[in-house]
Amino acid sequence: YINRAALLGVISLLSPRSSIALAFARPSSTARTTPAISKVCREMSSTAVEDTMTAAPETTPESFEDTSSAYRDLISKLRTVTQLQRASAVLSYDQHVFMGNSERTVASRGAQMSALAGLIHEKSTDKAIGELIETASADLASFDGATSDEARILEITKRDYEKNERIPSELAGRKAALSSKANAQWAKARAASDYSLFQDTLKECFDMAAEVATAVRGENTDVPLYTQMLDEFETGMPASRIDELFGTIQEALVPLLTKVLQSESKPSVAPLNGHFPIKAQEDLSREIVTALGYDGDHGRIDVSVHPFTMSFSPADVRITSRFSEKEWYQGVAGTIHEGGHAMYEQNLNDSGLSIDSALSLGCHESQSLFWERHVGLSKPFWKWATPKLKASFGDDFGYSPEEVYGAVNNVTPGFIRVEADELTYPLYVNS
User: pLDDT-derived band of residue 21, with 50, 70 and 90 as boundaries?
Assistant: First the structure.
């Protein structure tokens, strides 16, 4: 936002309304211009034209991409893989949001995603990519000009290429098909509140994760399997460090939670409960997340069983939430949370290369939780948002900003992580 503010400041200087622009703007038919100003403008314009005609043309130094055909070919191949991955994401989004849930439909989508995953894997492990990495690296070592990200791009690409090489194409396809099947079965089990409907498939998911991690780890059995799995989400983060962090969190939070639950000064949750039309909640959530910075012109907001964010590129980042007529806060909080993810994605550089992808899952969650928790649970936020609640839900919503602030900060342990309060939320992850 600092960068955005700075950009707006620059734009304001170039705006037709700015004093600088007005000094040199072409007079309108109704504007008055003194002879002195007209003379100065004509002289400056004439001088500028002469300078343009006589000035020696500037030469732009060749970039590394200009000089290395291997690097250019490598970048082209990498961007093709990125576009295929984005196409796969479209299929996944459609399944989560719009597609039917019959067995035949799910099986058909699973076959489509499996075929696409196999194609992506084939192109990601093309031996030509390995050769281009080596040639481009040699070219970079002998390049005398200025470089920026090329060395890091080659480093990341080599790491990913070697990792993907260890995964058989058949395994990549099976993983994609299982993902499609698992999502559908989870949704059915959730609707029926019957864990047994998903139990066997969940085990398949665990087994699949272990199989992929084992393949990626290769012969280096000194690396714990769970550390290898974590590397997919937090590169370089060992399981031992995660245990240490969660141990510290648990040690601090459990006594604090006990103390809070024993308190006799508990806020009322009455402002959260009642009857709230779904359409009104959707409009309210859209208004709030847009005000926070989500760009709806480069995305969309839908409804799904479980809130999530999916990016097809910084130009198209979509979010979903879920709503209940009996309670409004979870829908708003879910939208703000996913909006935080989306704003992060929308502000990444759209190069189509891994260097401009999200840094890690932890970094991603820091963005979503910043907006949902640090901003969305603050007193100033609800001083601003409570009038919007009243406008959306009518005169029956007669609560003050202080009452709403107390209600949304209530601490109540439960079984659903995404609906957890700020204090108990880390303990779900820890368990």
Answer: very low
